[in-house]
Design a protein that fits this description.
Layout: E1 11-16, E2 18-19, E3 31-32, H1 38-49, E4 57-65, H2 73-86, E5 88-99, H3 106-114, E6 119-125, H4 129-134, H5 141-152, E7 157-164, H6 171-183, E8 188-193, H7 201-207, H8 216-232, E9 236-239, E10 242-244, H9 251-257, E11 263-265, E12 270-273, E13 276-280, H10 284-292, E14 298-303, H11 306-318, E15 324-325, H12 326-333, H13 337-350, E16 354-356, E17 360-363, H14 365-369, H15 371-378
Helix pairs in contact: 1-2, 1-10, 2-3, 6-8
Length: 381
Amino acid sequence: MTIAALRTPRSVYVHVPFCVHRCGYCDFTLVAGRDDLQDAYLQALECELAAVADCPAVDTVFLGGGTPTQLTAPRLERLLKLLHDRFDWQDGGEFSVECNPIGLTNDKLEVMHNLGINRLSLGIQSFDAEVLTTLERDHREADIVDCVERCRRLFDNIALDLIFAVPGQSLELWRQTLQRAVALETKHLSTYGLTFEKGTSFWTRRSKGQLIEADNELELSMYEASMQQLAEAGFEQYEISNFARSGYASRHNQVYWSGLPYWGFGPGAASYLDGERRLNHRSTTTWIQRVLGGGSFIYETERLDPEDRARELIVLRLRTTAGVNRAEFRTDSGFELDELVESELLQLVKRNLVTDDGDVVKLTHDGKCLADSVAGELLRV
């Protein structure tokens, strides 16, 4: 019996917390306007990486943020060389960097290409000037087009992130956004509904009536438009929010949805190792101080009991269009699917939220639209 969570990790996430500006909807770990911390960050990251021994083989590496390309080209090069020194990047692997269209200079593209990066994820969010202003983004459509064209000279695998249900955004405008994204002929599209997270300026502005949240019916219509239009354009929906050309699904993100282990480095980064989740301190300055001072930089740890871990695995895999394969689930969790959620699955089938052919359980169209509710019914609370 092989428990998925206990396998040797083959994926690495590195959090790079630097940004020019914190957008109003963002609750990620970042520091805005603090590029003076970049050298200290890299020094601390090198110390954190030093704990990994034997240069293990990895199939995916993902630099997220923040804005990893906010690093200067020499510092970005230093970061990538650190990762090459510590890990054995396998041939045929997927090595990604999140990028902002503004500030993604040609010298940074050259550095990434020369050091093995083969996938870029561009956080464009929209093409419409008013929507971008609402989201407090610093680029416009012309910047996006120029950025994609320059990226395409060196990279085949380019992904775009989009946000829908933005205040003031209509269904027709969202449909136009999807059309423009498809026209750029990139390999991957992610579509996320805007969320108002506590602690963000959007949360405060909504409470004051300065931002009006899209109603549920409109948000659902936008999500359904994503599924319809992108399927018609030849994209395969392989996860709730993610669509890709054949062969270009994100391998790194599939590690998360498969419940497999991974390393995480940097402030706010999460690791999943030996069945235990570990979260680094979210404050960039605190993380730097503690790493360089030899103290503990782990903010919290959590070890799920085997049954809770198995239930979580159900929910993660159900997010994918491949669904939950009973035989694979048995091998990867040590449990039979039906001993955990048989009655719940029967009710979900009756309500047309999942299909169950005896081998694989999958979300239906309606189930994808209510995925969070389905998850709540399958998790033990």
